[in-house]
Description:
Blueprint: E1 2-4, H1 7-15, E2 18-26, H2 31-44, E3 50-55, E4 58-63, E5 73-76, H3 81-86, E6 97-103, E7 108-116, H4 122-139, H5 170-186, E8 213-214, H6 218-231, H7 235-249, E9 257-266, E10 284-293, H8 299-316, H9 318-325, E11 340-341, E12 371-372, E13 444-445
Parallel strand pairs: 5-6, 9-11
Antiparallel strand pairs: 1-4, 2-7, 2-12, 3-4, 6-7, 8-13, 9-10
Amino acid sequence: MRRALCPVENLYVAQRSRAFLSCALRGDIDSSALASAFDALTTEHPTLRSRIVPAEGGHALELLPEDERPRLILKEGGDEAYIEELNVPLPVGGPLSRAALVTTGPETRLLTVTIDHTVTDGHSAITLMNALWDRYSDLVGTVPAQTPPVPVAEGDWPRPVSELLPPADAEDTEKYLRRRIEETSAHPVELLAYDTPRDRPADPSEHRIEVRRLVLGAEETTRLRSAARDAGVSVHGLVAAALMTAARARLDGDGPRTLGCMSPVDLRARLTPPVSPSVMVASVTSHLQAVPVDGETDPLDLARKISSRLRESVERGDHFHEMRIMPRVPAHPTLQMGSVIVTNMGATAAPASPRASKPPTSASSRLASRTSPRPAAARSWPASSPSTTSSPSNSRTTRPASPRSTCGPSATTSAPRCWPSPRTQPRHRSPPADRGPPARPARTVLPARRAPP
């Protein structure tokens, strides 16, 4: 059984980009139940147990034979487990998903889930991680069994988002494309040089992804939210302005330099009917704006410009045009060439702490988990050490609790939900794009850059 990739999905094939998520775990984990939970989800979502094959006019998804479908990988690791798993690519012609449970210590583990971006985006990847822990909670205490194969009908494949767009006049789309090409040609953006280790020369054969993270605590996040509110901008706009200012500082000279800020735009909630975050399909486009930045640029003024331009673009419906012209990007790469990329997902919920089959009787049976959304491999967010209890993204409890949560646009206005333990730490919430500051601490990730291959 096959499902042809649409022209937009075909763009991801050559990139081999992937969503990468992780949970840092402390306590006892029933690996058999977790393996069964992963099997159940890959059975429900045929794209996760598919591979990409050549097809007429491009590529197609093809179901893998039962003996080649992805299974939970169990392995041993250490302090470098996270970066090692981050750098494990999905094999060409192999499964489009991968899950690994790495034992990193006597009572610590790292769960990683990798999904090819051809069949996912940030929202669906996070929803899958949450669903994995929900299913695990349902299975803990039962006798795990291998999920039997289920025949896949043609209607079981998720439709490409490019087929769900509202109708548009072809001439209007061509006019939009010409305008975008003129804009990017008139205002070419500058890119920063890749970072390389100072203690050794760059090795093009390494092809490794590195990350550098900046975590904002509760007090810092409160100040950030207040500053955004007082300035009348979103937290996303303020963070984007800070990154643009930092990028400008890395360039020579004092005069203005044109930098590009790329903000992903979620299409799921903007389609009619909306596409659920549980549907495993790429449903994101982008907004790119070129802005002159110099050493004297006021970050608040820059934030206002970025916020207003993004808001006006969404109000015009540019995101639908951006999806329609994506197949033309290879011929005009500057259409998606940004100096910085600022994640723009809104509030997302972390997975619920798995329910235990019986009340814990010792510290070793307590579990703390945390998720780190990674919308793309080059922009991955690392999981903190489970011992870092001061991080606002930690969720800790001394007794099992499993309030169910959802991920996606609908979560941006939901009330924060906490564990019943008095030692609870608040859940992480990402800053909304254009709806004002979030209700919970945010974190910003600055990706380290390596020399391109």
